[in-house]
Amino acid sequence: MSRNTAITVARGDGIGPEIMEATLAILKGGGARLDIEEIEIGEKVYLRGNSAGIEPSAWDSLRRTKVFLKAPITTPQGGGYKSLNVTTRKAFGLYANIRPCIAYAPYIRTKHPG
User: Fold this and answer.
1) 71 in a domain, yes or no?
2) Can you tell me whether residue 18 is helix, strand or coil?
3) Which domain holds residue 71?
4) Which end of the chain offers a freer environment for a tag, N or C, measured as fewer CB atoms within 10 Å?
5) Average pLDDT over every residue of 30-54
């Protein structure tokens, strides 16, 4: 029996929480076995005075799970704020935004099989 996969989830800002709720419902409906650790990022964190948009304790979750499912966030306009997307890429040495996908044709009809 396989164990659950720990992931870090950030619901984000604006439409982000709605998108994340739908995403998590799809994962649950698909039978994904997840242990979800939620962190707060984005506008609320920026407005509390953290110019990086992420609390120091959130980094612990990201390092532990090594999986970050993040909804859209807002970076406030004006000087003094760092893009959380850039900060995350630099912190973890990420250089590519890879989105793997699998085609299930011919079992599930698809416009672009293969």
Assistant:
1) yes
2) helix
3) 5-92
4) N
5) 93
- As beta bridge partners, residue 34 has 5
Report which of 60, 78, 82, 61 is spatially closest to residue 6, judged by C-alpha positions. Answer: 61
For residue 90, which phi and psi values (nearest 5 degrees)? Answer: -65, -45
Of 87, 60, 85, which is closest to residue 70 (Cα–Cα)?
85
Tell me the pTM.
Answer: 0.79
In a domain, residue 68? The reply is yes
Site of tokens 């997307």:
85
The verdict on residue 111 lying in a domain is no
Percentage of the chain exceeding pLDDT 70:
91
Structurally, the chain folds into a number of domains equal to: 1
Query: Please, where are the H alpha helices in 10-50?
Result: 16-29, 43-47
| Predicted pLDDT of residue 11 | 97
Provide the b/e sequence for 39-77 (b: ≥16 CB within 10 Å): bbbbbebbeeeeebbbeeebbebbeebeebbbbbbbbee
Residue 39 lies in a domain: yes
